[in-house]
Amino acid sequence: MSQIATVTSAKLRTPKAAAIAGIAFSVLSITFFWLVRLSIPTDPMESGEWIATSGNRVAVALNLVPFCGVAFLWFIGVIRDRLGQLEDRFFATVFFGSALLFLSMFCAAGAAIGAIVLIGSVQANELMNSATFHFARAFAYIVMNVYAIKMAAVFMISTSTVAFYTTFVPRWIAYMGYALALVLLFGSFYIGWGLLVLPVWVLLISIYILIDNLQRTSESAA
Fold first, then answer.
1. What confidence tens digit (pLDDT) does each residue in 29-87 have?
2. CA-to-CA distance for 117 and 139, rounded, in angstroms?
């Protein structure tokens, strides 16, 4: 059994370029937030005129959400693989749990906006004057800008703590993660583009891990 497990582990070893998943998540999520911010007003009580004028652009953005989720899950796997035996159960639970909560809320908010776009493509005028529209709009706003962004902050704090004690990335990245997470926890309500903080930080980590992995590959081949 041990020999079979060893062979299986070797075959399932994480590719050195797997950190590209974090870069993919960052690019896709930044594109998503950019398209949504260009199309939908920040005020959750707005009238909904964007349904007729920018509905197609929002639909394109929403199609990116599942790919963001897959890339983020792969990014989590890259970090856990890099930690290896250094992974602590407590912080691993908080790290993994907050990541899953962030993704679930991200998808839930996207589904609410997607429902608005779908119904609006057929009954735009009726939808804009209905209580259903205002409920769905407020629901998506609260889920994304209150709950999801706080889970993103928890994910950044737990990841930064692991990074600080294990140095799987430089400690200055961990310090930056702490600072940005505090901004999300206490100042996200006043920062319109606060949702971009997590993708930018993930991009920084992913670029470092990718470069480090490629350097180790070139050194071992030399």
1. 999 999 998 888 888 888 888 888 888 899 999 999 999 999 999 999 888 888 877 77
2. 15
Residues 160 and 179: their CA atoms lie apart, in Å, by 10
Residues 145-163 as b or e (16 or more Cβ within 10 Å = b): bebbbbbbbbbbbbbbbbb
CA distance 105 to 51: 22
Record the pTM. 0.84
Type of residue numbered 24:
A
Residue type (1 letter), 97: G
Q: Which pair of tokens denotes residue 146? A: 């209150």
Q: Please state the length of the chain.
A: 222
- Three-state secondary structure call for residue 138: helix
Terminal alpha carbon distance of the chain: 34
Taking the C-alpha atoms of residue 28 and residue 40, their distance in angstroms, rounded to an integer, is 18
How far is Cα 84 from Cα 99, in angstroms, rounded to an integer? 18
> Among residues of the chain, what percentage have pLDDT more than 90?
41
Give 40's DSSP letter: S
Beta carbons of 20 and 221 less than 8 angstroms apart:
no
Nearest to 186 by CA among 219, 157, 158: 157
Cβ pair 201, 25 in contact under 8 A:
no
CA gap 109, 56 in Å, rounded: 17
User: What are the boundaries of each domain within the chain?
Assistant: 20-221
**How distant is the alpha carbon of residue 152 from its chain centre?**
7
